[in-house]
Structures are given as structure tokens and as C-alpha cells.
Amino acid sequence: MKYILLCLYLVFLTTDLAAQIKVYAEMYRPQFHVSPSSGFMGDPNGPIKYAGKYHLFWWGHLRSTDLVYWEEINKNALNGTPNGFGNWSGSVVVDTSNTSGFGLNGIVPMVAAYTLHENATGIQRQAISSSLTYGSFDYYSGNPVINSTSHDFRDPQVFWHKETSKWIMVVSKPVDRAIEIYSSADLKLWNYESTYVGRGARKEVWEVPDLFELSVNGIETNKKWVMTCGMGPNRMQFWVGSFDGHQFTLDPEDNLMTGKNVSGEIFEDFETSFDGWTVQGDAFGTQPAQESLPNQQTVSGFIGNGYANSYHGGDATTGKLTSSPFTITKRFINFLVGGGASSSTKLSVIVDGKEITYATSPVNQEMLRWVGVDVSNAKGKTANIEITDAATGSWGHTLIDQIVFSDVLYDTKVEMANWADWGSDFYAAKSFRNYDGDDARRIWLAWMGNWTYAKYVPTSPWQGFESIPRELGLLKESLGYELVQKPIQEFEKIRLTEFAKAGFSVSGVQQIDFSPLWNVYELKVKFKVKRVDQVFGLNLAESNGQKVVVSYSAKTSNLSLTRPSTHFSYGGFSRESKAPLMLKPDSTLDLHIFVDQSSVEVFANDYKVSISSLAFTNVNETMISLFSQAGDVEVLELQAWPLKSIWGVTAAEMERPPTVVTGVKGESTACSVFPNPVMRGQEVALRATSPAAEIHLSDFVGRRYAIEATGSLMRIPDGIAPGMYFLNIVLDGRRETIKIIVE
Question: Has residue 1 been placed in a domain?
């Protein structure tokens, strides 16, 4: 590979630009999302409303009267933590009856429950602190309130359960993929009640649980309990069931038991028998497996109670399941698959005696994941499905469940779960408890981050922020239980002049007349689809090849969000997020989109699907366009609003990247570095026509970083975050700047 660098001239407004930036006007700073003035913000902790104020902790503390405008109270709300311990995620309650005894002179106490992490050993215990000022909390001398010897026991969520007159705590056992439930009469003495374990996605650890009630289809007399938790590094899942104060029980109609969330015709679910299938060989046994087989690792991810498992007799056995003939009427066949990733362990679609397509497990693992194959070219033809185990070595078996004929491609390569959001950055969601009793809504928000790259994001002097608050609803319709998330109505107060246009068609790429001054806006659009092969959507924050793309494929029935790595190139950041989503019965798709400097949140089709992702946009790149491939798409409605900053910042005050131009008349100047990209701590060699009089490294903002230079060799600092930087060099009295990528 050749590393060829064009030297650049970089123009800075001043050498100390960073020192002059207004707080909350820094580059990439969200303007209507909650973020700290400085420091790191992670999981939302203890969201509550009491005495007319919403409180949000991270264990800093923010307050609001409307969930839109926020006031930062302090950076550390937990006082008195012993040396050698850290305060991890948790919750806050208002002890209105003073069950804890922390109240004084009629003042109702707030009590924080959180994980006390012992730094030296990694042991995690649950602790509490109390507050009478509702600002900061004092450490309880009787801590820990739940002792432990475990390194993985964290994130308590506490609430009052009126039916049993007890405080309830749900706390995660991350490595066990379990949620434990405790009860207490006074917040100090806790009793173990039960553990929820088993169903749900298990690829990564479980963290930050919550448990609350929601009305089904808006009917107040029909309520279900919803348990949620994060599955690291960035996903949120939920379960629907019942809770009696002691135990959470999964609803028999939860999608984990029925598979209804995948739209289409269920061809086979392997619940009780192989009726309709021809069984050959010994590998599959005589009936579907109900659990893991002898000497097999734990199998997870199947729906209901049964699945096909060719591990009977171990990996050495072989066999085949062949379905009865059927007519292909849908574009795709989706199914859950696990076991071996070899082509010798696969599901094949056979037409006229020939295999037209097949799929196998994405990885060698006893965890079933969704995979889909395209059979649209064979619609109307007679076919069979063959499930084959022809392998005899290691991972010589396959696991199959829930074969669905569908017009939605469910090729997600992820486990079966009730996913709350399909984006890369929606994690550790927590719901507000309203102690004022003046709002029946269940509202939650989440950390907009991903542990894969959270500590490297290109923001300063803060890192991390929370999603916009969303009103939750629970639907039970043809696709089983669906979690509806609607941005709270309060955000309408920060809308500026509306742009509206309706009843027009788009073919190719068409720029819209809405021209925000910065990437801080809200947009609604409703499309009418005419052709099954259409791909259409929006390009956001667009300029010079930079754009965030929100796209829908009518063929696969998938909504996607693709973000660039232009301004943040850390490995794993540049990615496409996809969500399976059927059009409405009238062939329409409605989108509600919030763009805020470094994030995009997309809500689709009555808020049943959401995709939330970080996307670091350039404040100078604000063009918006619509596009359609394979014919024109009709735009029934389009509305857009610039949004006011909740911090009082204007677009003109926003920190902007320095102007970058090429050398004179675009000609290359005589300097370069090698290698480029470069790793942190690695040396690079400067190639120049004369010795450098000055060398320093800077980022987009102009912040300088010390760099060791010995002759023509320079060492990149170990402590900087991966991303794009500028090597600033003075040669022969002129300044030259080389763009350099640090990995």
C-alpha cells in the first residue's frame, strides 16, 4: 500500500482557539440533548420527578421543569464514598413515607441506590446514600446494603411496589445473563426474592435493568410489566410479562415464545414433532430438541420450546431433514440458525432438484441467530427445504428454528430478542418515576453511546450524552408485542419557523429548500411507494462527499441509517444500522427524524421502530436532499423545523473546523510523512526539502499536543484518541500542514 500525502495549509483563527470557545458551543456539542458541561456522561441514573422538578443523574446531577431545558447542579452528587471505591450506575427514589428514617423535621428524603465498586478487587456491592437538599447525597454508614463477593453484580433500579408495600430492586448479574430481584421495607435491609434468567439475547453481558408497567394498546385495565436491560456494548432488549412483587414471569404471548415479531407465514417452528419432514440419518433424532443435548454446550436463541438439533450422538453423526413441497409465494425465507458455520451444515432451498440458495450459521456457536435468503427469482415455483448435517468433525452440527416465509428480509445476524432500538448508540435506558402523580406517561431515555468507541469520540471537554426523552407505549397486534417510542411533545416548544411541502415526486436526487443554519433540526416526511424494487430516502448533513443516509428498500422491507467516518474514523464506527420494517397497508412509510450535531434519531411508522446513532456532522455541511432509485417515489408530506438550542447558543457562535485549503494553485508542496495512517505511540518519518523549524500536532479545533521529534522521526503521543489530526510544520519560514490519521 502506498501512503501519499498532499501537504495542506491550515488557517487557524487564533492559536488558542479552544480557550475562547463558549461552553456548549463546542464542535459536535448537542444543542437539545442532555450533556454535561465537562467530563464523561454514561448511563442515565435515577430519573425521577418530584416537587415539580425532573432530576437526572449520571452521578453528576441535572434538573429540569419540562424535560427540555436542563440545569446542571453538580458534577458529583454522591458524597462520602470511601477511598478505594467507585460509584457505578443505579437509581434514585423519593421515600415519601420515610421508611428509611433518613427524613428529618418533616423533610422527605431522596435515596440513591447504586453499585459500590471496590477498585482493588473489582468486587461489586449495592450501597445507598440519602439527601434532604435534593442536590447531593450523603453516604450511609451501614453500607453495603447488599453484600457480595462477585465481580459482576451491578446497576440497581429501585421502585415502590404498592401491592406488597415493599421497595423492589432489580439488579443485573451480567456474566450470568440474569436479573436478580430483591425486596425491602426500609431500603436498608434487603431480601433476595428471585432471578430472571433464560430467554433473551445472550451474546454479551446484561446490564442496567429496569422494570415498570405499561398499558396494552392504551387500555388502562390491561397492563403488563415490562422488564428491560442493556446487552453490551450498545443494545437494549425488553421482555413482557407479569410481576407479583416476588418474581417476573414471561408472558406466554411474548415474542420470545411465539416469534410473531417476524412478519410472514410461519412454515415450521419445530415445537413438538417432525411431521411433514423426511428424516434421514441419526443426527436429528426422532423429534425436535427441547433443550441442549447431552455433552452439548447450552443452546440459546430458539423460540418457544422446540428446535431442530443435529447434535444427537455428537458431531460425528450425519443426517438430513427434507420438507414437504411448497409453492414459493414470498420474496424471502427467514430462519434462526446456529451450530457450525461450515457449508456442510446448512439450510438449502431446492427447486427442480437443484439448490438455488443456502445459508449456514454466521459463526460456530450454540446460539441461534436470524438469517434470511432471497428466493424472489423463484416465486411461483415448487420447492423443498433441506436441512443438512454432512459434517463429522468439530462443530459438525446445525441448529434450526422458526422458518418464516416473508416479504421482509430478516437477515440481521443477531439473536432473537425484543429489541428496543436498532441503532448503534442507544443503551442503558432508564424510565422516569413520577412522584408528583401529575403525568401518567411512562418516559425513558438512554445513553447515546457504545462501549466499542465511547472513550475515543472526538469531543471535548465532555464525552457522552443522553437520547431525547421518549414516551413509551405497548402494542399487541399482528406482530406480537411492540414497544412504541414517541419523542415527548414538549420538544415542540423549541421549534422555529416551519418549512412544509406536500404532494410531489422525487426521482434521482433532489435537494430540498429547507436550509438549516446548522445540523440542529427536526424533520417529518411521508413517502408513498410505487414499486417493489425502489430504494429511497434522505441524505442529511451533506457536503463534499460527507452525508448521513436514511434509506428504505421496498424489496427487502428494511430501513437503514448509514453514517460516515469522515470526522471520526475509529474502527467499528463507520457502519450501517438496519431495521426490518413493513410498509403500512397503504404502501406508505412515515419518518420522524431528529438531527443534533453529533446524533441522528429516526422513528418510523407510528414510532414502532427507531434507529439511534451517533453521527459527527460538520456544522458547515447542512444540505438535505431526497433520493429515489428505480423510479420516482411520491412524497405525500414533508415538514421541517430548525430547533433552538436549549443552552442559548446560536449557529453563529458554534465552533467550526478550521478552513483547509491545498497548496498554491493546488500544487503539492515538498513534504510528507510515512506511514499514514499511524498507530498511537508509533514513529513517523518526515520527508521534507529542508529541516523543520517547528513541529506540533493539533486536532480540528486547534488543540495542540506535544510530539517528540528526533531529526526526521516523530513519535505520535500514546494518550490521544484515534481520529484525524494535523501535523503542523514550519519550513523555510512558511507553515505547512499534513493531514494524518491516528489509529
Answer: no
Q: What's 588's domain CATH number?
A: 2.60.120.560
Residue 728: name the closest of 688, 695, 687 by CA.
695
Lowest mean pLDDT among 8-12, 57-61, 449-453, 594-598: 8-12
Amino acid present at 462: W
Residue 335 CB coordination number (10 Å): 24
Task: Based on the fold, state whether residues 14 and 30 are members of the same structural domain.
Answer: no
Mean pLDDT of 526-545: 93
Q: Which residues pair with 522 in a beta bridge?
A: 594, 641
Read off the amino acid at residue 541: A
The 10 Å Cβ neighbour count of residue 352 is 9
- Residues annotated as catalytic (active site), given as ranges: 43
Phi and psi at residue 152, to the nearest 5°: -135, 85
Q: What is the 3-state secondary structure (H, E, C) of 271-325?
A: CCCCCCEEEEECCCCCCCECCCCCCCCCCECCCCCCEEECCCCCCCCCEEEEECC
Q: Which cell is 560 given?
A: 437503514
Q: Do residues 649 and 511 share a domain?
A: yes
The whole-number pLDDT of residue 730 equals: 72
Cis amide linkage into residue 461, ω under 30° from 0: yes
69 and 134, same domain (yes or no): yes
Q: Backbone dihedral region of 17: left (phi > 0), alpha (psi from -120 to 50 degrees) or beta? A: alpha
Say whether both 281 and 198 belong to one domain: no
Taking alpha carbons only, the member of 594, 645, 620 closest to residue 700 is: 620
Residue 715 lies in a domain: yes
Domain of 724 in residue numbering reads as: 8-19+657-742
CA pair distance 370, 262, nearest whole angstrom: 10
User: Where does the pLDDT of residue 2 fall: very low under 50, low under 70, confident under 90, or very high at 90 and above?
Assistant: very low
Length of the chain: 743
**Element holding 257 (H helix, E strand):** helix 255-258
pTM of the model as a whole: 0.87
C-alpha–C-alpha distance, residues 387 and 355, integer Å: 12
Domain count, the chain: 4
Q: Do the beta carbons of residue 282 and residue 313 sit within 8 Å?
A: yes
> Among 186, 194, 199, 115, which residue's Cα sits nearest to residue 157?
115
Residues 550 and 647 in one domain: yes
- Residue 669: is its pLDDT beyond 60? no
Say if residue 381 is in the same domain as residue 436.
no
Cell 442496567 maps to which residue? Answer: 208
pLDDT score of 565: 77
**Claim to verify: residue 270 and residue 211 sit in the same structural domain:** no
Q: Work out the average pLDDT over 268-289.
A: 97
